Structure formats: C-alpha cells, structure tokens
Amino acid sequence: MSMPYYVAPEQIMKDRADYARKGIARGRAMVALRYDNGIALVAENPSNTLRKISEIYDRIAFAGVGKYNEFDQLRVAGVRAADLKGYQYSRDDVDARSLANGYAQMLGQIFTHEMKPMEVEILVAEVAHDNVSDQLFHILYDGTVMDERRFSVLGGDADAISARLNESWAEGLSLSAALKGAVGALSGPDRELSTDDLEVAVLSRTNGRRCFLRLSDTEVAQLLAA
Amino acid sequence: MPMPLFTPGNDPGSSFPELLRRVGLQAVAPTSGTLDLGVPHATTCVALRYLDGVVMAGDRRATSGNLISHRSMEKVVQADKFSGVAIAGAAGPAMEMIKLFQLQLEHYEKVEGSFLSLEGKANQLSMMVRSNLPAAMQGMVVVPIFGGFDVLRNAGRLWDYDVTGGRYEEQEFVATGSGSLHAGTVIKIAHRPGLIRDEALNLACRALWEAADADSATGGPDALRGIYPVVATITAEGWQRVGDDDLAARYATIAAEMRSRT
C-alpha cells in the first residue's frame, strides 16, 4: 500500500486560502459606505437580474462577491435565519451581529472541513436608528469577521479601491456624494462605469419599517449628476 | 440559532410555513377538545370593489360569549404593499394566521427577489385556512377576506374563503362574520360598478353601522373613546388606511341622518 505524501497543515490551509482568494479576485468588487442617512451599497455588476446586494431584514442588508451560487446560498440562509428569529421572538431581536456570527461559524466550518472552501466574501450591514451606530460586518471565506466603522470593500483589487475610498470618504456625506465617491473608487482613474454596470441599494433610516431600497438606473444617474 | 442550511432535495424553497416545519416550529393543531372554549371572537368585516381598487373595513370589537373582550382590535390589516386581509372568527388563530401570512409574503419576496402575484397570495391564504381545518372542527373557525390591487391586471380584486380553504373570487363585494348578513345587505342594495372613492368609503361605513346596530357582537363607532372601524383602500398606490378624522366625519353624517328621521 502506498502512503500518501505528508502535507503540513499550514500548507493545506495556505493552499485553500489561495484557492479561495483567487476565485474571489476574479469577480468584480463592491463597496458599502455610511452616509448621513444610512448605508449605501454599490456593486459593479453588469447583470440586471443576478443580484449581489439584497435585503435580509427590516434594517439589515446582505452583499456578496465571488461565486454567485455560493453567496446566494448564504443569502437565503440569512433570510431564513432572520425571519425565523423574528417569528420566534420579536422583529427587534433580529440583529446583524448574531447573523454575522452565524455566517462566520458556517464559513469557518466549511473552510476547514469541506473539500473546497467557499469562494466568497460577504457583508452584513445594519442601519441603526441614530447615525453613529451603523454596523458593517465583513466576513471572509475562512470565517474571519471584521467589524468596520466607515466603509467596507469586498472582492478583487480591494486594497486599491480602499485607498481611493479613504480619500473621498468623510463623516456625514450626502447620498449623492457617497455614491460619487463609491463609483469613483470602484472604477479607478482609468475607466468609467456606466449606471448599467452598477447595482446600487441603500439602507435608509427614513424608509419606514423596511429600510432596504434598491435604486433604479435613472435614480442612480440623477444622484451621480447632482 | 445555527444558520438553517438544507441539502438541495430537502430545501423548503420560498415557503415560510414549510421552513417552520423543517425546523420544528410549526403550530400544533388541537386534535380534541370541547366545542366552546370561550375564546374571543372577532366579528364583521366587509370589502368592496370601486373604481380605483378595493375598500376593506372591519369593526373593532372582539367578544367572548356575551362579554366584550377587546374594544380596539384590528381585524383588517395590511398584508403587504398591495394587499390586505380581514379576518372574522376565533381571534387567537386568526391573528396567528395573519402574522404568518404577512411573514410568508415578505419571506417569498426576499428569497425569490420578486413579488408574489395577487392570485398567488390569495392561493397561499387558501392553504393556510385549509391547514386550520382541524382547529376549525374544534370551533376555532377562521374565515378571512383577501383583497388587493393586481398590478398585472391593473384592477382591484377580492376573494372570500370558507372553512375548508375554498377560495371564491367576488366581483362586487364580500362580507364576513356575525354581522355579515346586515352589512352585506346594505352594500348589496347600494353597490354598482364604478363607485368613486368617497361613495365606496361611505358605503363601507354605513354597512358596519347597520351591522353594529343589529348584531350585538359587532362594535359601532365609539365616539366616546375615539375608536372607529379600520377602513383602508388598496389602489395602484398601495395600501392606505383612512384616518380617524375622516371616519369621525362620515359617522357624524350618518348619525345626523338617523336623528333627522326620528
């Protein structure tokens, strides 16, 4: 009987991480940033039907980059977990932190135990009642959770986009200014993104019970022109 | 709670009641019991079609036998942006059914990323009424009215149900609950196609007035406590509840008319 070659655990983990990172880097990026009245989510997405950004609950949104079928599976699991919790307890008891923890557990488990890690990076955003306690949880393919204060950048080329967004972001931006900054950071200096290549949604404090609102191409164009 | 994950063959899809079953949270229907548990009952609700859509209205009283158990119960509620439900019957199961129905519509919308059609919503409610049948056998009857604006057909539509989940689309109006005979007759006499909003609202208010006048389980407008029936319109702009000031004025007119007769 032939013995399999010994592979160091460090090497296994590194290979898996490289594999996941490569898959994620192939996809297009998205950003989420706080503005004066909530959280804006902007993704580069040429498809008008396959969404990267979606609603999870009254004040919570989900965004994913990487492999569509994998983050969509996570999105549906999130909607189910949130609706079940709201049904069992109260709508006020559904929060982004416990959802993010659930996601982190799941992704961590898959990363160490399954054949292949999920090639996704996801974001769970929750808009608060006041404008200082908004929450952005950025979760990586291996279950690492990052709690971000100002903005989150997910997907390929994240470092460069982050650096660009860092220059334009400020506390209390208007939606229009926030969108301009986000689109500028996603496109970079060498290209232009049309509204058709963008998927934009907001979690707005003034949108009633369900804060999530998808913006149409026309609305986005108006905001970018303002 | 762990994240609910399912294998492809075992996935509950976009159905929330099915999801509840999979995670073991579904309500247990009573299988035996006495016929009269003395639970609060909700009473008269009406709905009628008019030019722009649908008007739904319901009184606020819940009764347990000869006692009034609630004076300000809301039996007509918004189901989602373009639809509403009115419920008569045992208050507990009825409220639970409304809660589940609202959740199901929202759950579907979020999971699928699109709205359920109005017919689809009516059908969903039908299944929920049917699953309540064992409880109905024990006296916990729940009979809803479902109304909404069909954005695909650009018209208001109405359905009523029977205990077995039977679903019947109505062209003009529906009345349900203990005062439905009186309320229904009032609407039946005055209803014609193409009513305008104001006429439709007056008719709905009048129907509930007459039902309250003749049926002890139906509450009339309570000017003393400022409790008026729940009246709402559903049109292309969505669900809109009629304000209490508006209703107070309409009932003042009806009361004045009654006084002038004596």
UniProtKB/TrEMBL annotation, chain A:
This chain's protein is named Unannotated protein
Give a yes or no for keyword Acyltransferase in this entry: no
User: Which NCBIfam families does this UniProt record tie to the protein?
Assistant: 20S_bact_alpha
| Pfam families cross-referenced by the UniProt entry | Proteasome
Quote the Gene3D superfamilies the UniProt record gives: Glutamine Phosphoribosylpyrophosphate, subunit 1, domain 1 (3.60.20.10)
Question: What are the GO MF terms of this UniProt record?
Answer: threonine-type endopeptidase activity
Q: Which GO terms describe its cellular component?
A: proteasome core complex, alpha-subunit complex
Source organism per entry reads: freshwater metagenome
One record GO biological process: proteolysis involved in protein catabolic process
Keywords of the record, alphabetical order, are: Cytoplasm, Proteasome
UniProtKB/TrEMBL annotation, chain B:
Keyword field: Cytoplasm, Hydrolase, Protease
List the InterPro entries hit by this protein, alphabetically.
Ntn_hydrolases_N, Proteasome_sua/b, Proteasome_suB-type, PSB_actinobac
Return the Pfam families for the record.
Answer: Proteasome
Q: Which organism is it from?
A: freshwater metagenome
Tagged with keyword Protease: yes
Entry's NCBIfam families? 20S_bact_beta
Under what name is this protein listed? Unannotated protein
Q: Name one GO cellular component term.
A: cytoplasm
